């Protein structure tokens, strides 16, 4: 079974993000970029499927600038077999990205597409859902467990929903998006990083894929979160109750 896994290049989660002076976005110059953490979990899941003998080939795909090759190399070091970069200088909106990934899916014909549930930069949480809709495939989002039954051509997905866990059974081919508790991704070892340098990485120009990616959405302004005020330590329950009642006015 071929598995396609998506990998987005984002600002590293340890970086304190700074908003650009014109409020048009966040500063990306000289900022450490990494693989989106939920995509790392998706790649790990694909590698575990291969280790179990379920997946036969893992193709990692990224839509982004040439520099996203770095993140694809990371996916190759974790265990993907080959990678495809859909190169575009300007990042399309989520629908554009979903359409480009759909074009790759149609070319590669995987049985399972694994994505992160969310990209930590845009926080859209919609690419997997849009891709499933465009492909007319079933989707299992927010997965905290996924069991593939190749003989039955189904995947059982445990979903983290507000009230607890929901288990769904999807017919393959299907789209699954990874939540935090799906697995703990391994660290790429030095030998695997060296090996990844020799794995195939193909680049396709987004403009040549025959996909309309113009967006109808415009970012008007980006603001940093409000500074948090420092807290105080109270010395008694009575003082706490007094502050909650008279200062915070929440009780
Ligand atoms: P989002 O809907 O933007 O929150 O992203 C959800 C997931 O879609 C991410 O975790 C990725 O797996 C995938 N995705 C989004 N944008 C891209 C991209 N430019 N390249 C590859 N995968 C992406």
TrEMBL record:
GO terms for biological process: carboxylic acid catabolic process. This is Electron transfer flavoprotein subunit beta. The electron transfer flavoprotein serves as a specific electron acceptor for other dehydrogenases. It transfers the electrons to the main respiratory chain via ETF-ubiquinone oxidoreductase (ETF dehydrogenase). Belongs to the ETF beta-subunit/FixA family. InterPro entries: ET-Flavoprotein_bsu_CS, ETF_a/b_N, ETF_b, ETF_beta_N, Rossmann-like_a/b/a_fold. Its cofactor is AMP. Keywords: Electron transport, Transport. PROSITE patterns: ETF_BETA. It comes from Caballeronia catudaia. The keyword Signal does not apply. Heterodimer of an alpha and a beta subunit. GO terms for molecular function: electron transfer activity. SMART domains: ETF.
């Amino acid at each position: 079974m071929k598995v396609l896994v998506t990998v987005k290049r984002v600002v590293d989660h340890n970086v304190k993000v700074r908003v650009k002076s014109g409020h048009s976005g966040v500063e990306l110059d000289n900022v450490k970029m990494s693989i989106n953490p939920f995509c790392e979990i998706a790649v790990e899941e694909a590698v575990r499927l291969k280790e179990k003998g379920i997946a036969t080939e893992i193709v990692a795909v990224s839509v982004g600038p040439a520099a996203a090759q770095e993140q694809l190399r990371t996916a190759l070091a974790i265990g993907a077999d080959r990678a495809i970069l859909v190169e575009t200088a300007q990042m399309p909106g989520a629908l554009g990205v979903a359409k480009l990934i759909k074009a790759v899916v149609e070319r590669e014909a995987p049985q399972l597409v694994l994505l992160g549930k969310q990209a930590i930069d845009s926080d859209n949480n919609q690419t997997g859902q849009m891709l499933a809709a465009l492909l007319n495939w079933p989707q299992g989002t927010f997965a905290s467990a996924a069991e593939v039954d190749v003989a039955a051509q189904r995947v059982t997905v445990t979903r983290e929903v507000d009230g607890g866990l929901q288990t769904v059974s999807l017919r393959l081919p299907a789209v699954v998006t990874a939540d935090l508790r799906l697995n703990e991704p391994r660290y790429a070892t030095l030998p695997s990083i060296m090996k990844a340098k020799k794995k195939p990485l193909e680049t396709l120009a987004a403009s040549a894929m025959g996909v309309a990616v113009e967006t109808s959405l415009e970012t008007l302004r980006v603001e940093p979160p409000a500074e948090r005020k420092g807290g105080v330590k109270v010395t008694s329950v009575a003082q706490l109750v007094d502050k909650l009642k008279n200062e915070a006015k929440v009780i």
